[in-house]
Structure formats: structure tokens, C-alpha cells
Amino acid sequence: MTPSSTQAPLVSLRDVRFAYGEREVLRGIDLDVHRGQVVAIMGGSGCGKTTLLRLIGGQIRATGGRVEVEGQNVGELGNAALYALRRRMGMLFQFGALFTDMSVFDNVAFPLREHTELPSGLISDLVLMKLQAVGLRGAAALMPSELSGGMARRVALARAVALDPMLVLYDEPFAGLDPISLGIVGQLIRRLNDALGASTVMVTHDVNESLEIVDYVYFVSEGRIVAQGTPEEIRASEHPFVHQFVNAEADGPVPFHYPAAPMSSLLDRGVR
Ligand SMILES: Nc1ncnc2c1ncn2[C@@H]1O[C@H](COP(=O)(O)OP(=O)(O)OP(=O)(O)O)[C@@H](O)[C@H]1O
């Protein structure tokens, strides 16, 4: 138990359900994020991780249960209150693309210009501080096309935290990165969280990288939380699902094969 876990959690989901039309993708989710924590949500493709992040970010509303952020029931907020809450969240969605026609500096300045009335001198100082924090102050004048994939992701991190959010949400922050950039981005996620005194939720497939930097992990399968724990608990877990994930085994509770009739029933019958 971390010291922060004695306070009410910053994010709390209770018996949360969500369906796209008739199709239920989340079923009875209970999840807490305590202040100061970095929490990972992991699971196979299509299990509902991004949907979970979008519920916390208030982009969609739960069809059942309760999603609370800072004690507010996100599903019941009106537009103004939801906007005010979201203004205090930093988000980096899948592949967090930069605006290609703006410099690195202008990309990071964008949320500050959109959401604040700060004078340009102060915006400039804040942007340079964020870029310094991700090691790219010297790249302020470059265009996105001049950056490596790892640098672009670091600029996207700086942009996500430009407004000093209390909660940062990352969807697949490691996607497409080489191993060195992956390590750098992981360490930055941790450092930015701690420097801001924020809390972080990240959806990711990268188990080993995540276990290095997070405080707690939730594993989702078929819309349910099937396992959870600290990195130490996860590494020691005998749970078959966790074991398959941590050891990158091709088959296990998460099947390699998409459901299909047995091969033997199809062979020699001309069925494809
Ligand atoms: N807008 C939508 N309308 C209908 N179904 C959707 C929609 N968005 C997602 N889904 C379905 O809901 C399920 C959960 O999607 P979600 O994106 O949350 O999964 P995920 O775990 O983030 O997957 P991945 O790791 O592949 O990004 C998937 O089966 C997906 O096909």
C-alpha cells in the first residue's frame, strides 16, 4: 500500500459497463487510481482498454455503474463542468500525432494558446520548460517531419502536459518505438508524473517497459478485470493470463487462433 492510497482515489470506477449499441465491451469494471500513481491497463487487442480510457476522459459515458474523477461523477456532468474537468487532464491518444504544419514549439504552445489567456512571453517560457523536461528544448524550431519517431513522441508528451494536468491519460505511448526510445519515453512518463504531482493512466501492450515505471497494473480480458497488482505481484503471479502476458507466450488464455471450426472439418471439402 502506498501512502497516497489512504486518501480517496483520484479516479474510481465501480461496476462500470459500456456497450457500443447492442455490443457490450466492458462488464463490471472496478478500478482505482490513487494520487501520484502511474497505473497501467493491459490486455489483448480489442479487450476494451481504449474504451476504458475514453470513459475516464469523459469522451463517452458509461452505460452502467459509476466513473468518478476527483469525486465528480463524470457520467452526470453537464458540458461546462465536463469541459472544465477535461481541461485538467492531459491526453495522448493512439499515435498522438503532432500538427505537421506547426513547429515543435507551436505544437506544445497549442493547448496553452487554446485554453489560457496567458501573455506570449509566459507561454514561451512554459513551452521551453516543457521541452526542457523532455530533453528537446534545442529542437523547438524544428518541424515534425524533421524529428525521429522517438523525438516526436517526446514532443507529444510535452504537449500532453503543457497545461500541468492533474491526470494524464496515455493510449499506447510506446507504440511503434525502437527499444531505446521506448525506455526514454517510459522514464519520461514517470518523471513528468512525479514532477507535476499528477496521476497517470496508460493503456499499453508493453509489459516489461511498463513494469519498470508503474505503481499498479490492471489486466483486462473480454471487458473484465481479470488480474491486478503491483509490478512485484505481477512478476510473481501464477495467474495464467498474467503469465502469458509477462512471458509473451503466443498461446494461453488469450488464444492465438481467432475462433474457427476445426481444420479437420474443412480439409478435403473445398471449404476456404
Ligand atoms: N466506435 C465503436 N463502435 C463500435 N464498436 C467499437 C467502437 N470502438 C471500439 N469498438 C469495439 O469495442 C471493442 C473494444 O475496443 P477498444 O478500442 O476499447 O479495445 P482495445 O483493448 O483498446 O484494443 P486495441 O489494443 O486493439 O487498441 C473492440 O472489439 C472494438 O471493435
UniProtKB/TrEMBL annotation:
GO-annotated molecular function: ATP binding; ATP hydrolysis activity
InterPro entries to which the protein is assigned, alphabetical: AAA+_ATPase, ABC_transporter-like_ATP-bd, ABC_transporter-like_CS, P-loop_NTPase
Entry keywords, A to Z: ATP-binding, Cell membrane, Membrane, Nucleotide-binding, Transport
Family annotation (Pfam families): ABC_tran
Domain ABC transporter: residue ranges: 11-247
Domain of life: Bacteria
Protein name: ABC transporter ATP-binding protein
